[in-house]
Design brief:
Strand content: 25-35%
Largest sheet: 3 strands, mixed
Strand order of the largest sheet: 1-2-3
Number of strands: 3
Helix content: 25-40%
Number of domains: 1
CATH topology: GMP Synthetase, Chain A, domain 3
Number of helices: 3
Oligomer: single chain
Shape: globular
Radius of gyration: 12 Å
Structural class: alpha+beta
Distance between the termini: 17 Å
CATH architecture: 2-Layer Sandwich
CATH superfamily: K homology (KH) domain
Length: about 80
Amino acid sequence: METLVEFIVRELVSQKDQVNVTRVERDDAVVIEVRVCPEDMGKIIGKQGKIARAIRTVVKAASSKEEKRVIVDII
């Protein structure tokens, strides 16, 4: 799942080498943390959070077969 998020984020940002995607396992969920350069933060969030919401929707659809909930956290 983190490879999907990393692919989407790398295509959106201008500084691709500073993209860091990590997976954190919790009891009831999997958290995918996304870190980008501060200049690219607006490109990931988008106007009124539309791009961030779209990324979360794609991940939710892709993870529907997994037993745990997947959360995308933009840091």
